[in-house]
Design brief:
Number of helices: 6
Strand order of the largest sheet: 1-3-2
CATH superfamily: Winged helix-like DNA-binding domain superfamily/Winged helix DNA-binding domain
Radius of gyration: 19 Å
Shape: elongated
Order of helices and strands: HHEHHEEHH
CATH topology: Arc Repressor Mutant, subunit A
CATH architecture: Orthogonal Bundle
Number of strands: 3
Largest sheet: 3 strands, antiparallel
Length: about 160
């Protein structure tokens, strides 16, 4: 007999952590009237620097039209900047503005503060176990990451 997914405590707990973290980030992003799609684009640009629209579309996993709409909104709000590639005017590059970087910092601070509040509710011993456990889990995931995407599909 196959065990139920719900009866697997590791899977169930990781799922709850994922849901809770996603909810915290979604709430933090919503304060600034942005969606998770907007936030994902900002995070990609923050992690990789300037990207072509094609690279960003691939990294977001959306259609070109959806990526264009996302970038239109972020550009209108002064969070990203579009420019033409100096070597190929057909290529549109997108980069994060200082305002976009500041917004990411604010979302990060809100999320970290909320995580801190939740962890602070636990005993000192439990907090220590949580911090150590999360570090070990992160190390396990880093060790077994999926192969990197080909360079031509990742923002540089």
């Amino acid at each position: 007999m196959t065990p139920s997914v719900r009866s697997d405590p590791l899977y169930s707990n990781l799922f709850e952590i994922f849901r809770g973290f996603k909810a915290m980030v979604t709430d933090a992003v919503a304060v600034y009237d942005l969606s998770m799609s907007h936030f994902a684009a900002l995070r990609i640009l923050d992690s990789h620097g300037s990207c072509s629209m094609s690279e960003l579309t691939n990294d977001l996993g959306v259609t070109h039209g959806a990526a264009t709409g996302t970038i239109d909104r972020l550009e209108r709000d002064g969070l990203v900047l579009r420019s033409h590639s100096p070597t190929d005017r057909r290529v549109v590059q997108v980069s994060l503005t200082p305002a976009g970087q500041q917004l990411l910092i604010k979302v990060y601070e809100r999320t970290v503060a909320e995580i801190g509040r939740r962890v602070q509710e636990r005993s000192e011993e439990a907090r220590s176990v949580i911090i150590q456990g999360v570090a070990e889990l992160a190390a396990a995931f880093r060790t077994h990451q999926a192969p990197a995407q080909p360079k031509d599909t990742v923002c540089r």
